[in-house]
């Protein structure tokens, strides 16, 4: 089938960003995708006149983060982003803006004042631990949280852990909450995030892509250099054939492809099934990776129920929910006069799909008892928004692999941020490593 400079396995956002970057650097790239569509969990499609995303997304660190850097370097067409707005915390009885800094935290009366003061003390404990040189990636948040906080405050913190990391407080590293915004190698660990906690407003550099997530994928496709990228869908990779610790061929059910370099953007935990003879310790780590499972319920509504410009964190719902009325950002995502909202629920490791769908829908009705009579469309998505939980007691992949010309990208290969931003961080790291390997070779 010919030889390619690079074969990219998987056409999700990390695979497509990798293909764009490398093709712009002059490489001939083949992208293999097992599904009949591209974009993975970063795409949009039509349902009964509404344009739904694959789960709601907030695109973070847009001012100077990893996606912005990739867009500045490689995009011919830049997606339009609108401000994501404020985050609101909703309980059974009230709704308030999320407290991004100390001043807001001290007046955040959804939680008891005693809890807020105790957590402030915990923050300064973390400052001390950081200054003492402790590795905050190995210390769970649970260890610095006072044991006598209220149930409400405990649920607030658990909500943050499950949606930011995909794990409970007992398995969430402190570092996840204070990771430095800068992705440069010489940046000072933690200090950027601590500054945010103490001073800034927060969430000011987050956006939503006008036209939905599909606009990001469309911009990537429109930016591919002519005759440099070939995408083949319905091509499930069965084997990555290696010789002398180097990839020689990528084999699918239909074809085999020779390549100089391979980039794998699928689940890192599946690599041992694709490559023979991987080191035992490497394999053991990969198979211990814990995925994050989620359920999104999209509701098309005949009434404008969500009037605030922003998203809502439901900390008292069972299960926990994050609510994003996407048509508030772009009215064209819903028919005229109607509203589109996505409700995301983090799922347990083991779950029954029909039971969880009912439980999640009941949670929505508990908050808005009259919403059922305004439902114009309902659509369910079972998704894996993060390929790896950023948990202390579970495995995590890496961009580097034991195979010299095989690299991994995606949300299970880089522990920074979340979602699209984490995927973009992994691509930047991959490009840096590949450049270093090429230079040393």
Which features would summarize this protein structure in a list?
FAD/NAD(P)-binding domain, globular, seven-stranded mixed β-sheet, alpha/beta, 441 residues
Give a written overview of the molecule.
The structure is a single chain. With 441 residues, the protein is an alpha/beta fold. Among the domains are: 3-41 and 211-288 and 392-440, FAD/NAD(P)-binding domain, CATH 3.50.50; 99-198, no CATH class. The protein has eleven helices and 18 strands. The strands form four sheets. Strands 1, 2, 9, 10, 11, 12 and 18 form a seven-stranded mixed sheet that branches. Strands 7-6-14-15-16-13-17 form a seven-stranded mixed sheet. A two-stranded antiparallel sheet has the order 3-4. The two termini are 27 Å apart.
Produce a short descriptive summary.
By secondary structure, the protein is α/β, with parallel strands linked by helices. The protein has helices at 13-24, 66-74, 102-106, 113-131, 151-164, 191-198, 214-223, 271-274, 280-287, 353-367, 419-440, and strands at 3-9, 29-32, 44-47, 50-53, 81-83, 86-90, 95-97, 207-209, 229-232, 237-243, 246-252, 256-264, 292-301, 310-314, 321-324, 339-346, 375-386, 406-408.
The best one-word shape is globular
Helix content: 25-40%
Top CATH class of the domain at 3-41 and 211-288 and 392-440: Alpha Beta
Radius of gyration: 22 Å
Q: Could you name the ranges where pLDDT drops below 50 across 5 or more consecutive residues? A: 182-199
- Please count the beta strands (DSSP E, at least 2 residues each): 18
Helix/sheet category: alpha/beta
Distance between the termini: 27 Å
CATH architecture of the domain at 3-41 and 211-288 and 392-440: 3-Layer(bba) Sandwich
